[in-house]
Amino acid sequence: MAIVRVTKIFGFEMAHALWGYDGLCKNIHGHSYILKVTVSGKPITEPTDIKEGMVIDFGDLKRITKKHIVDVFDHCVVLNNKAPVEKFAGVEEMFDRKMYTDFQPTAENLVVYFADILKKELPPEVKLESLVLFETANSYAEWLAADQE
């Protein structure tokens, strides 16, 4: 049976700032992110399996990605924990959805972080092939499994 790739696309809103950066992105600002998740595998061939012909049910891919990425990062402020994050800690009115990372929250670092999450959560017979994270309509970062090997 041939290997087949399937892709699901997600959108979420997220704010971030780049601590210590020398440009405008040092300021808290937001983006409408688009995340394309591509996985591969052999379609199920067992005729009695209700998912015959599928690599993964799109609903399962959606559930996994929403639970571990979209629902976590949507309308969240993401900051590098090297920043004085304690100033935000007690401010719940506008900062109840915040995350502090050990890395600069660039599109490049986020796409690698998302890949690490999804690789752990996907079924073993399904391989994460690529992630494309659009930060703007014409700027994106891409993670490819082929580049990791």
Blueprint of the fold:
Elements: E1 4-17, E2 29-41, H1 58-73, E3 76-80, H2 86-89, E4 98-101, H3 107-121, E5 127-136, E6 139-144, H4 145-148
Parallel strand pairs: 1-3, 3-4
Antiparallel strand pairs: 1-2, 2-5, 5-6
Which structural category do the helix and sheet elements fall into?
Answer: alpha/beta
**Overall form:** elongated
Number of domains: 1
Q: How many helices does DSSP assign?
A: 4
Main sheet: strand order: 4-3-1-2-5-6
Order of helices and strands: EEHEHEHEEH
Low-confidence stretches: none
Q: Would you mind describing this structure in some detail?
A:
The structure is a single chain. By secondary structure, the protein is an alpha/beta fold. It has a single domain, classed as Tetrahydropterin Synthase, Chain A (2-Layer Sandwich). The chain has helices spanning 58-73, 86-89, 107-121, 145-148, and strands spanning 4-17, 29-41, 76-80, 98-101, 127-136, 139-144. Strands 4-3-1-2-5-6 form a six-stranded mixed β-sheet. Helix 1 packs across helix 3. The radius of gyration is 18 Å and the shape is elongated. The model has no long low-confidence stretch (mean pLDDT 94).
Give a short summary of the structure.
The chain is of the alpha/beta class and 149 residues long. It is built from four helices and six strands.
